[in-house]
């Protein structure tokens, strides 16, 4: 049977799904173990997350990992993503990055647990909790998987909960720049600063934008804000693109379409325009972050060549 220290590792779970007495039928789930509770477990498979009640588990074990990016590549991409979403308050704990931004988004309000915290893991977690307490926030830790599997195991022992699994996906920029041009759609406008209604559309999905949010969104030196408007000037779609180091990564975020304008190809239209901008800024690869449970977005990006580079869990300290 699997244990908490197996979270973050590749496993196979054989599940009883039916049959007759003495002749049970089984099905297997192969993927990354992302959650294990007293009642069930969840495996992130290539077809999406599979939750299995422990009462239905016939056999489960850890299996060798598939080919994964080197730890250094994961760290480099995470640091580029941090530069693209820069919390206005940051501090270092060894290699870990502690971030606060008025509680706007988990990314900007969590400790990025990559590298060596320059102390024991238990003391590092204590230091994270103390830092966030000083900043008046509940402690969060962003734990890339499976790189931070030991961190997740330590947090499990302390009763930290996990938010939904996030996929960090990448694609070659050429696959986006070469998308067919849609001359039947309104043009994509790319600006250095966001318009008030750009902020308003983002706020509809992300909640009220505090000052820290605006500082995050406009912080990177190489940032572009995409808008598509109809003939009356009303917004149809928005997005945000960045290019950051290390690696000259093109970061894609906040791709949003007005409800009445969906299923017209506007997201693809915007991705193409931003990719061409990024190429002019010497980017060669793109990345984005999407919750695994957002099946529609995952399918959209898969259709544009995005595959999962690594995953992460945002862990939340228990309330006291």
Automatic annotation (TrEMBL):
InterPro entries: Acyl_CoA_acyltransferase (IPR016181), GNAT_dom (IPR000182), Rv0428c-like_C (IPR056935). CDD domains: NAT_SF. Residues 188-320 form the N-acetyltransferase domain. PROSITE patterns: GNAT. GO terms for molecular function: acyltransferase activity, transferring groups other than amino-acyl groups. It holds the Pfam family Rv0428c_C. It comes from the Bacteria. This is N-acetyltransferase domain-containing protein. It comes from Mangrovihabitans endophyticus.
